[in-house]
Amino acid sequence: MNRLFFERESASIGQGSFARAVASRALHSLQLWPHVKFDGGDAAPAPIEGERTAGKESAWACQAGVNSLAVDRFEHKLMLTGGADSTIKLWDLEQITPQKKDQTLKTIGEVKRGPSTHQFGITHVSFYPFEPTAFLSSSYDHTLKIYSTATLQPSASFTLDSIIYTHALSPIASHLLVACCTQHPLVRLVDLHSGASTHSLAGHTGAVLAASWSPTNEHILATGGTDGTLRIWDVRKASGTLRLLDLEDSIGLGDGLDRPSRAAAKAHGAAVNGIEWTDDGQYIVSAGHDAAVRVWDASSGANTLAHFGPTLRNSKLETKPLLLSPVEHTRPKGGLLVYPNEGEVVMFELHEGRAVNRLRLPGPSVAVVRARTGTGERSVGRRVTSLAWRGVGEGFVSGGSDGVVRVWGPGVGEEMVDEVVEGDRDRREEVGREKRKREVLDDVFKDLTRTKITFG
To answer: Where are the WD repeats (predicted)?
Structure first.
């Protein structure tokens, strides 16, 4: 790492290359930060006779289980958690520091069950994509709701008459269409501009479990369902599916996403419940109940045949969270996939399928949590249900069925933490220098335009 600092100071590498190297090094060194805990104010479950207390959790974000979480995508300051007990909690992530002293974060706001809020467990939460002043939530109670982040009061509610497994809002679009994946084979589109929820996309023959908008084309949507298909849609067209991705097509026989594909094409041998695009829009990653992860060339629809080994576990009738490293923070084709496996989180090389890090969840494989109704208790397998990046070089957060939110950050000794913090500080200072330079140039330009200049 000292060599990187030397090369940057001697101008052998640019600021962008240095930042990418620091971020990439941090990504490859992630580990659990056990000193950071999230306490949502829930009481601990009653102890089981003969249960071991060593390593047992002492704080829960939601004691009934965390079904979903989201971090605001620009400043990474705020986090939402959606619980199996229908509560939504708001957290301030700026309180987290890499120094290894115990930190317990408390909620800064909470949406509890009430006449105008969700009645059953939350399935997915997400911030409004352009600014974190509002957020969306979907639930097993068949509704999609919009809340104000400042007041935590619902501003709109849409009833879709079917369980909503997840929802997706384009990070770049101005159309404000929310794609909702439900028990029904139709992909329901909710228009936040008009408040209409009547438009839908027909093609799947079973429940729809996953959806993701293209990060480069505001009208392109990918969805996956229990029928094993991964469908690409252009929401402007009424003709239905734009293309079906085919696991047997490794060369892109359709010659583009707008070309016909086999009517019987399937992306997986079982239900498709995870979809994510790389942030440059060049690849689509999918996960299915056939215990496979596939990487697709988004321009041709070809299966790249990346193989992730035989150890993947995926069988729940729910959306599988997939986390991809930002393209600008890794070398070309050096991206990482963060995959929640049973009892662990595995980091893979995206295009090679090689496991580079296994992050195991602490504690026993089974956890006792509060029942969803708020009375009684139940036992659940300890697994990760949601993932979200915290920021450049800062790692990610995970929510679990055991009700615990965990922070995974760079941690190869204190030296690594110092390097990441220093690299982040250098990036902020560089941005500040560029801003001051622009302000000076603006002042010079304004002086020139205010003063009459005569050329003799």
So the answer is: 78-94, 201-243, 265-306, 384-408
